[in-house]
Design goal:
Blueprint lengths: L10 H9 L10 H7 L24 H15 L7 E10 L18 E9 L3 E8 L5 E2 L9 E2 L2 H15 L6 E11 L18 E10 L11 E6 L5 E3 L18 E2 L13 E9 L4 E8 L3 E8 L2 E2 L3 E5 L2 H13 L8 E3 L9 E7 L2 E6 L8 H14 L2
Parallel strand pairs: 16-18
Antiparallel strand pairs: 1-2, 2-3, 3-4, 3-5, 6-7, 7-8, 8-9, 10-16, 11-12, 11-17, 12-13, 13-14, 13-15, 17-18
């Protein structure tokens, strides 16, 4: 079976697995936890940026006060209700902080300063400042505006996206929120085999960016649909501009037709991958059994051939792989198909089936798949390799 090409950004990860014998008896997959769930560095507490160990990265109090006072005047919000939720050093292209006002002339002199996010608990505003706090501005934001969304809705959206991206919620920024009346209980995003109530559901459409210095550019965004309270949140992939961890554009997913879904797993099976296509045009099923056996069968027009055992995992290794599926939220890909780019040839189509559902992708676009799915593919390829 043709092995799927690993992306360059994961080469060190895969080499480490091979060199340490991830699939040798008694050792391997226990290392998978360390590779895929390395401890994250502690994040500064929102609103208390002075917890940062580097004094040069602390937002000066006079700048924080200048931002809060300016926003208080514009929005008629008591200063005491405003808090700084994020701040980072920036170099602006001119003394106008890259946000000139009408008929304002700005010298082309680079200006050191800060980008500051301030919140009243329900809304967030992005400010730009110089290094002294004498100049503070909200770029492209008319006075009196802000992102007004209930806290429960904003928190629910950030919580979902935080899990998808594997990043802290405080690096996510809501830049747009509008009231919507959705046509049904699925918020207008229907999926096969999911029953939707027909009643109109009032709610919100919320746009989020990852505030890593490119937030103002709008290059990458996630658009969510929610109900009024935020108890239901759905990512609208068609309206989102989603990039993977490497910064490239993600392939848009479609739904796998019900007629093309493979059978559910047998009781003694943990995971199955069906690979078809390529130069040879053959179809193989590779299956991980509950007892740790990894077997492969060739599927032809007359049915499956005899099983060939590739290797046997320990009970602990099987459990580690199941934990990986949960940690990378394999269930979020249920029913999704990531097709090859139009005009592609000689690619292999891979269909993964686990207890949480089935997803399908073309190996030619593996580098453009969601990060969590790529992590699952990398580990599975080590398990399935002869």
């Amino acid at each position: 079976m043709k092995l799927i090409k690993n992306s360059h950004r994961h080469s060190q990860f895969v080499s480490a697995l091979v060199l340490t014998g991830i699939l040798s008896l008694g050792a391997g997959i226990t290392l998978m936890d360390a590779a895929t769930s390395a401890p994250k560095q502690a994040q500064p507490t929102p609103g208390n940026l002075n917890n940062r160990p580097d004094r040069n990265n602390r937002l000066p109090a006079k700048i924080a006060n200048a931002v809060r006072q300016d926003l208080s005047r514009q929005q008629n919000i008591p200063v005491g209700r405003l808090r700084i939720v994020k701040a980072e050093r920036k170099t602006w292209p001119d003394p106008c902080l890259g946000a000139p006002r009408p008929e304002e002339l700005c010298a082309q002199v680079r200006t050191e300063g800060w980008q500051v996010v301030v919140s009243d608990g329900a809304r967030e505003w992005i400010y730009r400042t110089d290094s002294t706090g004498k100049t503070v501005r909200m770029p492209n934001t008319p006075p009196g505006t802000g992102v007004n969304v209930p806290g429960s809705v904003g928190d629910a959206v950030k919580r979902d996206l935080s899990k998808r991206l594997g990043v802290p919620a405080d690096v996510l920024l809501i830049v747009k929120a509008e009231r919507r009346d959705w046509p049904n209980g699925c918020l207008g995003i229907n999926k096969p085999e999911v029953m939707c109530t027909e009643a109109i559901v009032p709610g919100w459409e919320v746009t989020v960016v990852r505030d890593d210095g490119e937030a103002a550019s709008g290059q990458e965004k996630w658009v969510y649909r929610t109900n009024d309270k935020g108890s239901v949140v759905v990512l609208d992939e068609s309206a989102s501009n989603i990039g993977d961890a490497g910064g490239s554009k993600s392939i848009k997913a479609t739904q796998i037709p019900r007629s093309e879904l493979p059978p559910a797993l047998a009781k003694d099976e943990v995971f199955r991958a069906i690979s078809s296509g390529g130069f040879a045009g053959r179809t193989y099923a590779t299956i991980l059994k509950q007892n740790g056996r990894v077997v492969q069968v060739e599927i032809n027009g007359n049915g499956a051939t005899n099983e060939t055992e590739i290797r046997r995992l320990s009970t602990q290794q099987v459990k580690q792989f199941q934990k990986l599926l949960e940690r990378q939220r394999f269930s979020q890909f249920k029913g999704l198909n990531y097709p090859a780019v139009q005009g592609s040839a000689d690619f292999i189509t891979v269909t993964f089936t686990g207890s949480a559902g089935t997803t399908r992708y073309a190996d030619s676009i593996q580098d453009q798949l969601p990060k969590n799915l790529q992590e699952i593919i990398l580990v599975w390829n080590q398990i399935a390799a002869r």
